[in-house]
Amino acid sequence: MSSSFNYDYIIKYIIIGDTGVGKSCLLLQFTDKRFQPAHDLTIGVEFGARFVSVAGKQIKLQIWDTAGQESFRSITRSYYRGAAGALLVYDITRRDTFKHLTTWLEDARQHANANTTIMLIGNKSDLESKRAVSYEEGEAFAKANGLFFMETSAKTSANVEEAFVETATNIYEKIQSGIFDIHNEAHGIKIGPMHTGGSSLPTGASNGNGACCQ
Amino acid sequence: MNFFASGLNTLRGQKGQHQTGSETIDRLCDRIEHATLLEDRRASVLTLKSCSREHRRDIGAKGTKVLCKVLHQDNADIDITKAVLETLTVLCQPESDREEAQDLALEISKAILEDASNVAVLLDMLEEYDFYVRFHVVSLLATLVLSNTDRLQECILTSPMGMSRLMALLDDRREIIRNEGLLLLISLTESNADLQKIVAFENAFERLLAIIDEEGAISGGIIVQDCLQLVQNLLRYNVSNQNYFRETSCIQRIPALFNEEILDDNGKHNASMKDVWSDQKGNNMIMVLELIRVLVVPDHSNTTPNQKSMYQCGILPLLIDVALTSNAPQRVKASAFYALAELIRLNNVNQDTLSKTVIIPAHPPAFISEAHNPSLTPPSRSSAQLSRSSFQSGRNSAIGGHRPFEQRERCPAIVEVVAIAVGKYPGCTYSVRAAATCLFQTFVLENPDTQMVLATTLNPPPDDNPNTPSNEKPQSPGTLLLEALQGWQEDNETGVTDPYNSWFATVLFSHILQNNPRAKSIALAITFGDEENGEDPVSLIHAITAALMVAVKGQSDPRVALGYLALLCVWCYDSPKSIKDFLSEGVHLQFLIELISPSSKEDPMVQGLAAFLLGICYEYNWEQDALITRATIQPIILSRIGLDHFAACITRVRESKPFKDAVPFMVVLPSEEGGGRLPDLYFDYSFVEFLKRTFESTQKSIMVSPNKSRPLAGLSASDQAETESQMASMQAKIEAQNSEVANLKSGHDAEMANLRSSHEVEVAGLRTRHDAEVADLRAKLDEAYRMLSQQAHERREHEAVWRELEGLREEGRVRQERQEALEKEHEDLLICLAEQDEELSGLKEHILALGISK
Ligand SMILES: Nc1nc2c(ncn2[C@@H]2O[C@H](COP(=O)(O)OP(=O)(O)OP(=O)(O)O)[C@@H](O)[C@H]2O)c(=O)[nH]1
Ligand SMILES: [Mg+2]
User: What is the ipTM of this complex?
Assistant: First the structure.
């Protein structure tokens, strides 16, 4: 709680992909370090948050976990544009979830910010015996579409941390190289009061009461 | 152009000739749809607009679709767009309150919303900077949201950029647009969780809090109120948004909302502005307080972490300030009490903080009336005539002689809460008192230690050192309660009796005693009357019953009796000792019976509670040496009152409107008071719950034979205490028997000396007597053992039940250990007895031998 104000950047993520691929589980594993065996169908959108450290900078990730169900698609589209990072998830044991990636990607390309970093995730890597999509196929799809790629397991937590951090690293690099207009909050990034880069956002600077509230 | 001019003239000139008007509208619509020139289309729209008020129905029927089409096609032209927007807005706003007009407007807005792309195009238009376009789009959307909220929400959700365009309205520097946009967002987010989340995602909290800051926090204008309203909408019952609010450190920004610009109209720094409460400032403050409440609603998954965050950033003292030390208007204070109540509910740290807080109260000290002076008449034991001073005589009056409007002494915050709740300050509204009562309730809720501490304050605090220049006598929550418990009589002199003078005190007192055997024992020990002055001490429970009897006999407002009865029910429930004390005055039972009897004309709710109380007095009447036993009460209920009538009494109270209307956090609406009106508070909600939970078993227990020994199946604390005390008395019995044996033995020794010089016959007689005595002793011991083993058997059964009840497992274990220890002790005693027995027969042989040898 006390460190809530001590961040260099806030970055917004969304998690998208078919229903049941493990989006909510990935988020839960990342924020709470636990696994939820039952499928709690996400209704609309849920929020989660966690700090990560990238290149010595404190970055607060605000993560919106969206519903994979078709009926919520129109709602989740409202979240694309404001996100700096997107985790596009499929289930390596269900081929159809891999096939639907094209649709998801079209959606993202249409509604998301052009600079949004997209990480393709093949989840449930612990279920090797039931695998229906090979690592190479996933990797090839990512390469063809200019995405990052990783296989994860929300159950064993393999690569979960890495997936979120890797995405943050890439976004941080984009910030450093000036690709992101960090002064436009609509792009899913906000500079924190700790940031020493000089120009801070008016809201952060005006009250300056960040540190006293801890 | 001529055509249009004439068309217009036709419409205007021949009003009432609908045929012509209708035809013209047909042609106008046709032109709008098909004219190739933009000018022609524009002119037709303008004409249509100019007559839209007079021909709503026709234009609505024929023109709605056409006008919407223009929005799609011609939105590059600002003039035509503006005209269309205005026309549609007029059509969608009902002309009057008449149903027809409402239906027409609804129909037209339905037609517009039918095609979601119409909404999409409107939202796209918000990209346009032109003031009028933006303004009219917002007006139209605001009109549509009123007539058809759900459908508009749906349409907006299908437009991926829609919400962020609406949110951009908040950044518009033109205030009208920003404010209208705010109102639109408020209506849109009232009920739709998806929209609430999207709005939050668009940084709503940041943006709104920034606007509030800019506008001067609570001292700002209505815009602050609107912003706070929107923040509240986004958070109410929305777990995800509450997480977001907390994770983005927005709770830490709440204290800043209490800040005010203390600048006066001339821009001068003026600290006294803090004490000036305009209506708007009051509204803003209430919104802040409501916002806090939304974050800590009972039984919500986010409440505990939010309570913690609020504690950490110091919101608790701010609330205490508003509620107790500020001069805020009463409606604001009431709000602050409720917010505090929920902030400390089931949270030990926060409860503790409140209990440690000391404040300088804002209220002027209560004015002293003559009626408050303690009477010198000693209270008589005939309780019906017990004078009102019986609560105080022989002890220090809790009311000191202080002058009004002087700086108040510091006192514990909770004392002031009680003072307000029980009505010590004549100016306090019922709504504030109800709110303070709720705070008191959550202060003691599931907090037995606090209940105990409060119970001990029933004994008055010592007077201050006479040398300290204090104007106020020290007070405690307990003394305030005792004083108020008889308060309903006080205004008799003025001819006004306010039943709430005692009612609130009974509620508070019930909360101190509820489910707390120790607090009940403390209260039982309270007596009035100075024995040194020759007064007969009267116990508190009798004094309360006396007040109840006076209230009923004096035909006071039923609330008075209901308050006392509810208190007695809570007090006696599961408390044999309290029942014994309560019934030790025979007239009390008589009084209850009269109240309930079928011929009684008493208020049905009062009868119901009297029946409930009588039932409790039967169900838990387990004290051994009680004056009135179960055997006395059962036939009275079964034959004199009748079980059916008894049950009907309780049913009637359960089905009464005030009983059903009770809500968890009692409220008194401003409309419910004032002008001498009394609010509709008859029952405290926790009492309602208590009765609902227990009346069935109480009712059933009447059928259980009075001789049946106390069932041990109960799992309550007092049941366990009861078992323990039975074990203890068993042990005492064994000890007594043990010492009896010892006595016998020593008696024996003495007699032996005599025996030496006695006759053989006497020795033989002695022996028979001894044998009989020993046998008797054996039998007693056997009986004791049988009881013990039966008890052990019962205990084992109960343990099986207890094991199922997780929460009580630990208690069961402790109890078992204790019992085993007792059994062990008992076994030891038996061995000891056997040894003594042996010794005894040895002695007898010895005596015999002596006799023989003689
Ligand atoms: N074995 C295994 N099971 C997983 C893994 N991740 C998720 N699951 C299971 O997959 C099911 C669905 O997981 P969720 O996270 O609820 O799915 P979702 O993507 O959020 O689904 P929607 O909310 O409907 O969009 C659950 O039963 C999880 O226990 C994983 O890495 N390994
Ligand atoms: Mg999910």
Answer: 0.84
